[in-house]
Amino acid sequence: MDAxxxxxxxxxxxxxxxxxxxxxxxxxxxxxxxxxxVIESITRDLEYDGNNKLKHHYLVYPAGNPDCEAAxxxxxxxxxxxxxxxxxxxxxxxxxxxxxxxxxCLEKGTDRSVAYATMPHRHFDGKEGTFxxxxxxxxxxxxxxxxxxxxxxxPIKISWISPEGVKRDxxxxxxxxxxxxxxxxFLGHKFVAExxxxxxxxxxxxxxxxxxxxxxxxxxxxxxxHRDFDKEIKDTLRNEWKRHQRVKRTxxxxxxxxxxxxxxxxxSMGAFYYNNRKNIVREEWNRKGVFVNWWETDxxxxxxxxxxxxKWQERLRLLVEAWAGVPIxxxxxxxxxxxxxxxxxxxxxxRESTHAVSLIVxxxxxxxxxxxxxxxxxxxxxxxxxIMEPGDIxxxxxxxxxHARNRPLMGDNAYYVNLFTHYRxxxxxxxxxKSNHEGAPDPVVDVEGSCRLEQVATSKVATSKIFQxxxxxxxxVQCDDKxxxxxxxxxxxxxxxxxxxxxxxxxxxxxxxxxxxxxxxTHDEL
Length: 526
Prior knowledge:
By secondary structure, the chain is of the alpha+beta class.
């Protein structure tokens, strides 16, 4: 942070204290109820919008102690309060009594199913720090990330509008994803974006939640007219086969495992996507290759605010470390990436030095007309196909195991939102050149018996609940060796060389040879 930005933030925080002094008036204007609003059920008694997402931010606390700070807090207009009792109290504060002085801030946009779940920093237990610090830092302070797609040559000038209506210089934003600027703000703060050259107004915004916002429209990824994508894809697949063979170390029997996010981090991720779903931009794919078919269908992107990213990454690291069986360190988190109708992800492996063990997180999806499996080749190059639902995670050895989504995502206005996070053994960039750690399970290479297709009810198949009722009886793989798990591809496909990867890509290509996305639009129906 430079000196100018530091001064700007100090002025913004100072004026915020003035803004807080207006809280009583604001609360009166909107009739915020800080007492007597007793909630018995989080899922039934709070206010939700038409998509079953929390309609407001909430400060919640036990109903039985009116002397606690949370019960007496005067609220600004963007936050409502609710005193909790019974089922609602135990959902948010397991084991708490109604007289306890605890509090939590529930985030606008959280899905009804996990509305009770908050990240640890959004809980106040009365043991560390003051309630006012918690209130300011965890309830009203929010992170904001801004991007410039307005001008490739001129920075955007961002100014903050103080509570007195004074415009103060805040920061400048250079063009593109690399120019992203993130900073701490507060609910209700107002900013204006202006052209850095002409001073013309671009847009005014009021901060209503953790926000990522781009000004302007991200440009297309170059001109594909003179490129031979068929050749590029074949060359890429041959290279990816060589890369996957270079890694010898393994961490698990198959190289992957399906799991589920803890409710609190799923609630956080889901709320962030939902609140910012109309702010997605075209993902930048210039000079990144052909792993995503960006020339046929747009692939969209939503930058994760940096401080929030660090909180997510550390929580997820603990899950991955338990699966990998060795101490690991975070190396990268990427997303949110929104795939749309016609999207395909080419078979590949990730960077050797940084992507030893990783997670795929599905945050949201909708309007799919058929399941869209993630494909992972195990340690013997057998293909597995895993159907994910929002909140599902897939652990995988991403530098070793080939993975993809070769089948096109199908559905008018379909969307599928993923987060990717990566780790390696602690302080060991050359992990992939070493032998397996002591205690590591042997990879499943040779198996007993065979696998075959049998007709079974969908209730016995590891597929999406969304599609089970439609499918009825299906052909599913049954293997004699149970170590192969539940996700062996119904095709029983196994790669023995790069040409097999090319055949699989060709076999899964749409009949027309094109998947151009013409649906467009944003997704309000989640």
